[in-house]
């Protein structure tokens, strides 16, 4: 029995699988440690098979050396796209870290081996909530759609211009810091003013020992105001998903 095999389609699909798998290893929510690496690899191959017919037209088979170079290029492209998505959602984690620092929870930090996050309560809570919201709101489907569109901008046999992504990554880091401050800035300012007020009370009436009351007061303020920030996370995650798609679309 003769089974015909289209080696052009197979080679193009393999290229696409390398880019998609590298993306899934880095980009949330697929990068979470609770998802085994074997499942990520199988998902990458499955998605590559789904778009194989779209990336194979116009593809010319390569020799050994150019083929290996193209595999490396696909690996770098997938890792870059995954980093852009990760940077977008790292703003939520950074905002939680700011709440831990200003709220006094930083002393209780621990390392989460599944999410690869080293932080205190709000850092891990915000990061896990962002992952859950991505699955619950179908935001992960938009991310996969953005990844599929990247094959139009950068074909499997095309080369990535590194100057554009380098400038884009610089802008993304700045946007990450700005977004973190916008999310947690108001609460951090309130906690800072609470410290200033306690300091003034201590100067006026040292016998009151206001700083002894400062710890439970700051915890109460943090828990109360963090609830308001937590309630806005669905809208924040939706906005960050749009930013991630926009950044992925700028990769050429």
TrEMBL record:
Keywords: Cell membrane, Cell projection, Cilium, Flagellum, Membrane, Transmembrane, Transmembrane helix. It comes from the Bacteria. It is a multi-pass membrane protein. Its main location: membrane. InterPro entries: T3SS_IM_R. It is found in: Cell membrane. GO terms for cellular component: plasma membrane. GO terms for biological process: protein targeting. The chain crosses the membrane at residues 12-30, 42-59, 71-92, 125-152, 172-198. Belongs to the FliR/MopE/SpaR family. This is Flagellar biosynthetic protein FliR. The lineage of its organism: Bacteria, Bacillati, Actinomycetota, Actinomycetes, Micrococcales.
